[in-house]
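Model: Ready when you are.
Researcher: Fold this.
Model:
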Amino acid sequence: MSPEAQRPPRGPRRVVALDVLRGVAILLVLVHHMPVPWVVLPSIDPVLQFVRSTGWVGVDLFFVLSGFLVGGLVLREIALTGGFSRGRFYLRRLFRIWPAYLVHLVAFVAVSVALERQAAGGLGAALRASFARLWPAFLHIQNYFESTSALGWMWSLGVEEHFYLVLPVGLALALRRRAGVPLLFLAIASCCTLARVLTRIAHPTSTNAYDLIFPTHLRLDSLLAGVLLVHLSLREPAWLERLRPHRKLLAAFAVVALLVSAHLLPAETTFHPLAYALSFVPLYAASFLLVASAHLAPDTAPGLALRGLATIGQSSYSIYIWHGFFGPALANRLGQGLGLRTTEPGLHAVAYGGVYLVVCIGLGAVMHRLVEYPALNLRDRLFPRRE
């Protein structure tokens, strides 16, 4: 998921199309993680199962968006000022990522310790056990340690944090040559693909996502795809203009490619060798969708549905953080109060799914306002952007 999910409103700087894509991506993730039996009616159950299996591509879309946005910040500063402040970049990233992340992490540890205190033999023992499991999460290396599986959805934030650390250095080297950024992408994409193949060979029977899916060195190509897109849009804007008449066809192709990849590579079979042979499909489909919607769409006022998606997208980072543990817990409590249970199929499942979505989105929106927004405003006062 993209920690660059939103910024404080800045008038014309905000791109509604990107907010819409964030909203689509977070809804895909929420649907994919929805803890209900997808059994309603025999005639529509296959469609529901397909929709659920599609959800995992939301993370790829977030990765491409993040690379596009953060890469654009770096490239625009270099173009405008002739230089780039790494210290300023890292401080702005710190204010963007860590306040919301740490508040959730501390809250999660507090609840975990409270629940495990008696079984662990006291507060101190519960704290030590929690720290022994979760210390990698405090260093943002949780995507390499299976002990953090209670925070399993946080793996993507580790990937993005590592991307932010290496991006300024990589771009500084790549920009020394005219074709440096495309070459950097090709090198990283090739290395990631090779690493995925070698990892599958090294773990032929494993189904452990911490071996096969979560590590940063297997996923950086998605983020670099976004960097390549923004580089081309800034350096070679004419190629976008040539695509503009075909934007609807491009968007349709992207959606079909995402749906096909979800059908061929559902979550239950992402460890199959086929997943590595076709791992580029959702990545490049997400890239095409980004280009078609954010750059080629006509400048018209969005309809009500798109405005709703954009509003959700503005809080997508907090929604993603809080949806994994606190969202289901609160939804379950509310669902029980309404007489709904997660194990019941049929209309009960539909109703509970609605409760789950409302709770996760609402909780994320509240935490965005309470934590993210003040931190971002403070960041922009202390370290304003140079573009």
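Researcher: Now this one.
Model:
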Amino acid sequence: MELLSEWGLNNRHFEWMDYAACAGADPGLFFAEKGWFAKYGEAKKMCAKCTVYKDCLKFALDNNIRHGVWGGLTPEERAQKKRDDRGG
């Protein structure tokens, strides 16, 4: 987590990551290459069981993360959420 602190990210509270359902999971589930979106289904199932998915999603939105599944949402779903939250 020290590395994350050095990246200059917003929302610098990373303790929630210790409680994430995906801790120790294969990152490939969450960061599928283009065209491999079927893998995202497995990631989303894991997120659905996670107790800290809201913290994860907030982290991704606060830091404009454009890759991977965070908080149960794909990059496209997060972009749509941002538009919806802005009212447009």
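Researcher: Key takeaway?
Model: The CA atoms of residues 29 and 39 lie 6 Å apart.
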